[in-house]
Amino acid sequence: MGNLDRRNFLKLSASTLVGITLGGTALHVVAQEVVKADDPMAVAMKYVEKSTVEGANCANCLHIQGKDGEALRGCNIFPAKLVHAEGWCVAWAKKG
Length: 96
Known about the structure:
The structure is a single chain. The chain is an alpha+beta fold. It folds into two domains: about 1-30; about 35-95, High-Potential Iron-Sulfur Protein, Chain A, CATH 4.10.490.10. It is about 35% helix and about 10% strand. It contains two helices and three strands; from the N terminus they run αβαββ. Strand 2 (about 70-75) and strand 3 form a beta hairpin. It is elongated. The termini are far apart. Mean pLDDT is about 80; it is low at about 25-30.
């Protein structure tokens, strides 16, 4: 009976750890909002959701965060906000 209790405890602990980890990730993503065109920082950085500069967009910028292929990603220039991968701003620097 002692092994059964320990086994259940370990299963519950592992499930809780996974839940906390995934839950924290989900909350982190939900907490971020998309940069709006009228945001003072966006205006100052001349941010646009769709780049008009050939070969330059947020997806291939040095400041972009997150995984390739995601439409919305974090950016070092706009902390705690998401930018469009197809966007652009004056801080654009080619990812090396």
